[in-house]
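task queued by scheduler; priority normal; single chain, no ligands, no partner chains; default sampling; output format set to structure tokens
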Amino acid sequence: MIAIIDYDAGNLRSVEKALAYLGQETVTTRDPEVLRRADKVILPGVGAFGDAMENLHRFGLPEVIREVAASGKPLLGICLGMQLLFSESDETPGVRGLDILPGKILAIPKEEGLKIPHMGWNSLDITSGTRLFAGIPDGSYVYFVHSFYLKAGKEDIVAASTEYGSTHIHAAVECGNVFGCQFHPEKSSRTGLAILSAFAGL
């Protein structure tokens, strides 16, 4: 069973629907015991970093998520959910993230002719040997919606990257049992379904 964490931060239904299409059993919950019993856990999210951390604390979830990460159970952060796995974000200075992975969330720099938020399809430069992208061709396109991006603290956790203007974006991470996608696999057509299928099969 895959548990999807509900902390009032959006995009739950689309993740549920994508996993149901793949034949996966899911439960959407904020119950710590259900999360502990799940085989795999997904932390989705859209919105602001500070508000999301406030919600996680309100529901008593940060320690449970850190427990899941430490247990070896597969954990996937999507969009804002991926950003929360890191220590801090330019979006809300002074608010501490979950601090599970090394890195920082930065604002996409303004450039002439560049729209922010970044919304649309971008191709991925995929790191070879990553489990999340097994069998997915390099250069595959996925769907992004974001104004902030990850600069990972260690290059060896970067599973895929992309470019937006002159900014090099760490688009996905993989560190042991912890995974993250800045893009939305649940909205990324066949490529996204293949990524979710790879996660479900871990």
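post-processing summary
- The first helix runs from residue 12 to 21.
- The chain has a mean pLDDT of 96.
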